[in-house]
Design goal:
Number of strands: 9
Largest sheet: 7 strands, mixed
Strand content: 5-15%
Helix content: 40-55%
Number of helices: 10
Number of domains: 1
CATH class: Alpha Beta
CATH architecture: 3-Layer(aba) Sandwich
Strand order of the largest sheet: 5-4-3-6-7-9-8
Length: 262
């Protein structure tokens, strides 16, 4: 039978013996598909990069948003905030100790309630002014911190009436700005141009939800906060993104923590 073996079979037998029992087919496959395996390895390397892993987690959080951030509450008040970002906001507020936090976009008031409670501890005379086109704040308004420190304005953050009231409240105050209202690029950019000048050197203007329109979520949203930030920074050198504020890795506001540097 062995005498009838073909030359290729004979060589195959030698290979099996020479490889000490290694599966010769695996060996040959590894030799013949080296390029394919290299490409697969590169793909795996990319998939394991920290930024790729973070983006994948980010998308997972948004895919299940009704069970993740949209279910968040602060002392029973609905609060659509990412806990990582709340922590960073707390650090910024503690560092800056603003006399006035201007918040555009109130929703149910959970976030304004958080800012007021932080101020209560680190700057008792500090205040929050928050504005929205709808008043859904009845639950938040029950808390003493809200009654003592929060002013709610009903109206658009860019309307002349609202802007006039806010600027009057900001006179002579150390201001911090948080933008979280209408996320369309033009609206956010208008807010930045209105409220940015009120922020002193060393202070912050935080543009929330720069993650939408594919950064990395809501790819079909259209130009939004991130595009507004890019245009604002291209024209304004007074602010720079503070990357240290993104050190917890998962943030809904990439490039959105803007520190006034001059």
């Amino acid at each position: 039978m062995a005498l009838c073996c073909s030359k290729s079979s004979w060589l195959l037998g030698i290979l099996v013996l020479g490889l000490g029992g290694l599966n010769v087919y695996q060996f040959l496959e590894s030799r013949t598909s080296h390029k394919e395996l290299s490409a697969a390895q590169q793909e795996r390397d990319v998939a394991q990069k920290p930024e790729t892993v973070i983006d994948r987690f980010h998308v997972m959080v948004y895919d299940a948003m009704e069970k993740t951030w949209q279910s968040n509450s602060w002392l029973g008040v609905q609060c659509w905030q990412n806990p990582n970002d709340v922590w960073i906001h707390q650090e910024v507020i503690s560092e800056v100790k603003p006399d006035l936090i201007i918040e555009a976009g109130t929703h149910r008031g959970g976030s304004a309630l958080i800012w007021s409670m932080i101020l209560e501890q680190i700057h008792p005379t500090g205040k929050v002014v928050t504005m929205d086109i709808n008043d859904l704040t009845k639950d938040a308004a029950k808390f003493p911190a809200w009654k003592d420190r929060v002013t709610f304005l009903l109206g658009s953050s860019t309307s002349p009436e609202t802007v006039e009231k806010v600027k009057k409240m900001a006179e002579g105050k150390k201001v911090m700005v948080i933008l979280d209202s209408n996320h369309a690029k033009d609206h956010v950019l208008a807010e930045m141009k209105i409220y940015g000048p009120l922020v002193p050197v060393g202070g912050y203007m935080i543009v929330q939800d720069t993650n939408i329109n594919g950064h990395p979520v809501y790819k079909s949203f259209g130009p939004g906060p991130m595009e507004a930030v890019d245009e604002f920074l291209a024209e304004n050198k007074d602010f720079e993104p503070d990357k240290n504020c993104e050190r917890l890795m998962f943030t809904m506001h990439p490039k959105g923590y803007l520190k006034r540097v001059k």
